[in-house]
C-alpha cells in the first residue's frame, strides 16, 4: 500500500490522521476505557455537574493543606463525594444511549444511599468508635449498603474484572465461618477495609497528582513531549514508531491509564506508523506496549509509586529512584524491536526539514519546570501533597509564557474539572482493593497463599517467581493500574517476601510489573485492543504483537529478583554498571531474535541462539555473561562480514 523506501512529509501524516479521526477516537475511548463513558449534560445541568467536579477538586486541595481531621473522617468524606459524583456522571451501561440531562430515579437512590452511608459514619464517628465490634443493626445495614453501592460504582467506572476478584474474596470470608457483623465491621468501619491504606493514599497523594497531571495537560506539555520525540527520532529509519515509544514514555510519566495513553498519543503516532509502512497490527501494538510501559515510568508510575512507598515503608523518592533502570531497559527493548522491524522492512523516516526545529524546542524547555520542581521538592523532603500543589502552581505560571496553551480562567476550571473527574475511577478501584486487602487481613488468606506456593516451589526461587507471575497476570486482567498493584501487593508480594525471603521492594516491584502487563496480555488486553481499534487491525493479533514487544517486562523482573543491583539495593556502582551493560546487550540480542533481523535477516537457528544468549546475559553470573557476550559477539561479526561480502558482490 505504501512505498517503503519513500520518505513522507508531516503534511501527508496530518492528512492521514484526519482520515483516522473518522473512526471516532471518542468511541474508541468509550469502548475500552470506562472513564470516557459518561452522561451528556447541557445548559444549567452541565454547569451544575461542572461545579460539583470543580468543588470536589478544590475541597481535596483544602482538606490536604489546611485541616487536621482523623483518617476515618477524611476517607469517608472522600468516598462519599466520589460515590455521589459517579452516580451523577456515569450511566448504568457502557455505550448505552443516554437522554440529555437525564439521571434515572434508581441512580438518585443509589447515589444518595451510598454516599449517605459514608456520611453517616462521619457524623456519628465518635459513637461508632466507642461501640467498636458491638455496632448495632443500623450500622450493619448501612455498611452493607455502602459496600454494595461502592461495588456498583466501581463496576461503572472500571468494569467487571475487579468486581469478580473482590466478590471471590468476600465469599471466601463468609465461607470461613466469620459472622456477618464482624465482616461488615472490618470491611466498612476499620482502616483495614474499604477506608484502608489504598483510599488513604488516594485521598491525599493520588488525587493531588491527578489534578497536577490535568494542569500539565492544559499547559501543552504532552504536545511538547511528542515534538521532542519527533526531533530526536523522527528522521531515523521507521522514525514514527520510535516517536511513539519515546512520547509514550514521556507522556506516561503523568498519565494514570494505559488505555488513555494509547488513545491520546496513538491518535497521532499510529497513523504515522501506518503511513510509513508498518503493518497495522504492529503499529497498534507498538503504541499499546509503550503506553502500558508508561505505568512503570517514574516519577508517577500510574500512581502506584505512592502506594508502593506506603506498603514498603520507605520514602517515595526511594521508589522512583529504584524504578529508573528497569523502566529504561523496558523502553530500550521496545525501541530496539521497532528499529530492527524498520530495518527489516526497509522503512524510512520523516524528512528532517519537516521536523520540529531544535531551537524552537529549546525555547519551550521551560515547560519541563513543573516536573523538575516536583522531583526536586520530593527529594528535598517536602511532603508529596505540598510538592504536587506547588508544582501545579508552577505549571500555571509557566503556561503564561506559552501563547498556544496560556492558562485562562476557563482553562483553570477545565483542568480542575478534569482532575476531579479523573480521580473517580481510581478512588472506586482503591475502595474495592481495600475490600480485598481487608479479607486477606481478616481471614489469614495471605498465609494460605504463601504456604501453597512454597509447598509447590520448595526452596526453588525460579518456580516461586513463575507461579507468582501467573497469579499476577490472571488477577491483573482488566484491573486499573492502582487497584492492580494493591491486589498484587496484598496477595502475591508476601509469597516472595515471607516465603522466599526476597527484599520487600524487589518483591513489590516484581508483582507490579506482572500486574501491569495484563493490559497487553491476551485475552483481556484492553490497551492493545484500543490500539487495534485506531489502527484498524485485528485485536488479537495486535495483542500478541504487543506482548512480543513488551518481552522486556517479562524478563526484567527476573533480573532484579536475582540481582538487585538493578534496583540499587545492596550494591556498588560497579555492579550497577555491569548489570546495566549485560542486560542491555541481552535485550539487544533478544530483540533481534524476536524480530528476525540484526544487521541483516537472521536464520531461524540464529534467532533461537540470539534469544538464548540474551537470556544468559540477563541471568546474573560471570560464567553466563562470558558465554552470552562471546556468542552474541560472534553473531554480530558474522552479520557484519556477510554485509560487507554482499556489498562487494553488488559493486
UniProtKB/TrEMBL annotation:
InterPro entries reported in the protein's UniProt record: DctM, TRAP_DctM-Dct_fused
Q: What are the entry keywords?
A: Membrane, Transmembrane, Transmembrane helix
Residues in domain TRAP C4-dicarboxylate transport system permease DctM subunit? 146-573
Task: Show the stretches that span the lipid bilayer.
Answer: 47-66, 72-90, 102-123, 135-151, 158-175, 195-216, 323-340, 361-379, 385-402, 423-442, 448-476, 483-504, 510-531, 543-562, 574-597, 604-620
Question: Which Pfam families does this entry report, sorted A to Z?
Answer: DctM
Q: What is this protein called?
A: Sialic acid TRAP transporter permease protein SiaT
Source organism per UniProt: Anaerotignum propionicum DSM 1682
Gene symbol of the encoding locus: siaT_3
Amino acid at each position: 500500500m505504501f512505498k517503503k523506501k519513500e520518505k513522507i512529509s508531516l503534511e501527508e501524516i496530518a492528512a492521514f490522521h484526519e482520515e483516522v479521526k473518522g473512526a471516532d477516537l471518542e468511541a474508541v475511548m468509550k469502548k475500552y476505557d470506562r472513564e470516557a463513558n459518561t452522561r451528556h449534560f447541557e445548559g444549567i445541568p452541565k454547569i451544575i455537574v461542572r461545579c460539583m467536579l470543580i468543588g470536589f477538586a478544590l475541597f481535596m486541595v483544602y482538606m490536604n493543606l489546611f485541616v487536621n481531621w482523623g483518617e476515618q473522617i477524611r476517607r469517608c468524606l472522600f468516598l462519599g463525594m466520589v460515590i455521589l459524583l459517579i452516580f451523577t456522571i456515569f450511566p448504568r451501561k457502557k455505550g448505552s444511549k443516554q437522554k440529555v440531562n437525564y439521571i434515572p430515579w434508581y441512580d438518585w437512590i443509589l447515589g444518595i444511599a451510598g454516599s449517605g452511608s459514608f456520611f453517616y459514619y462521619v457524623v456519628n464517628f465518635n459513637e461508632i468508635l466507642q461501640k467498636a465490634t458491638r455496632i448495632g443493626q443500623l450500622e450493619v445495614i448501612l455498611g452493607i449498603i455502602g459496600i454494595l453501592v461502592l461495588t456498583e460504582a466501581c463496576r461503572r467506572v472500571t468494569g467487571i474484572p475487579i468486581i469478580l476478584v473482590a466478590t471471590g474474596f468476600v465469599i471466601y470470608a463468609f465461607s470461613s465461618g466469620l459472622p456477618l457483623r464482624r465482616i461488615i465491621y472490618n470491611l466498612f468501619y476499620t482502616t483495614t477495609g474499604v477506608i484502608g491504606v489504598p483510599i488513604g493514599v488516594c485521598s491525599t497523594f493520588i488525587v493531588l497528582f491527578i489534578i497536577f497531571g490535568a494542569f500539565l495537560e492544559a499547559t501543552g506539555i504532552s504536545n511538547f513531549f511528542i515534538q521532542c520525540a519527533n526531533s530526536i527520532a523522527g528522521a531515523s529509519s521507521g522514525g514514527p514508531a520510535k516517536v511513539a515509544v519515546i512520547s509514550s514514555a514521556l507522556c506516561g510519566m503523568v498519565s494514570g491509564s494505559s488505555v488513555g495513553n494509547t488513545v491520546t498519543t496513538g491518535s497521532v503516532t499510529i497513523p504515522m506508523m501506518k503511513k510509513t509502512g508498518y503493518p497495522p497490527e504492529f503499529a497498534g501494538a507498538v503504541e499499546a506496549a509503550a503506553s502500558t510501559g508508561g505505568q512503570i515510568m517514574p516519577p508517577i508510575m500510574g500512581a502506584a509509586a505512592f502506594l508502593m512507598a506506603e506498603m514498603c515503608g520507605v520514602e517515595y523518592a526511594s521508589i522512583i529512584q529504584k524504578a529508573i533502570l528497569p523502566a529504561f531497559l523496558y523502553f530500550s527493548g521496545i525501541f530496539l524491536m521497532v528499529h530492527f522491524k524498520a530495518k527489516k522492512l526497509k522503512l524510512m523516516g520523516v524528512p528532517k526539514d519537516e521536523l520540529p526545529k531544535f531551537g524552537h524546542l529549546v525555547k519551550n524547555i521551560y515547560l519541563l519546570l513543573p516536573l523538575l520542581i516536583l522531583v526536586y521538592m520530593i527529594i528535598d523532603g517536602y511532603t508529596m501533597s505540598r510538592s504536587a500543589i506547588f508544582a501545579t502552581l508552577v505549571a500555571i505560571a509557566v503556561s503564561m509564557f506559552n501563547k498556544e496553551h496560556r492558562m485562562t480562567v476557563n482553562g483553570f476550571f477545565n483542568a480542575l474539572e478534569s482532575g476531579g473527574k479523573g480521580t473517580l475511577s481510581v478512588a472506586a478501584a482503591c475502595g474495592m482493593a481495600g475490600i480485598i486487602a481487608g479479607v486477606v487481613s481478616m481471614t489469614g488468606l495471605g498465609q494460605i497463599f504463601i504456604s501453597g506456593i512454597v509447598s509447590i516451589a520448595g526452596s526453588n526461587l525460579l518456580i516461586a517467581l513463575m507461579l507468582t507471575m501467573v497469579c499476577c497476570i490472571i488477577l491483573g486482567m482488566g484491573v486499573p493500574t492502582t487497584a492492580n498493584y494493591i491486589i498484587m501487593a496484598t496477595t502475591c508480594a508476601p509469597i516472595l517476601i515471607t516465603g522466599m525471603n526476597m527484599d520487600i521492594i524487589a518483591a513489590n516491584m516484581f508483582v507490579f510489573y506482572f500486574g501491569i502487563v495484563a493490559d497487553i496480555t491476551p485475552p483481556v488486553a484492553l490497551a492493545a485492543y484500543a490500539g487495534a481499534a485506531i489502527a484498524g487491525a485485528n485485536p488479537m493479533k495486535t495483542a500478541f504483537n504487543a506482548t512480543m514487544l513488551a518481552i522486556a517486562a517479562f524478563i526484567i523482573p527476573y533480573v532484579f529478583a536475582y540481582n538487585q543491583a538493578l534496583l540499587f539495593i545492596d550494591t556498588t556502582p560497579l555492579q550497577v554498571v555491569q548489570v546495566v551493560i549485560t542486560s542491555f546487550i541481552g535485550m539487544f540480542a533478544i530483540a533481534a531474535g524476536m524480530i528476525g533481523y540484526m544487521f541483516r535477516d537472521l536464520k531461524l537457528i540464529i534467532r533461537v541462539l540470539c534469544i538464548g544468549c540474551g537470556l544468559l546475559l540477563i541471568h546474573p553470573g560471570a560464567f553466563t555473561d562470558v558465554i552470552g557476550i562471546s556468542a552474541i559477539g560472534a553473531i554480530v561479526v558474522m552479520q557484519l562480514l556477510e554485509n560487507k561480502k554482499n556489498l562487494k558482490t553488488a559493486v
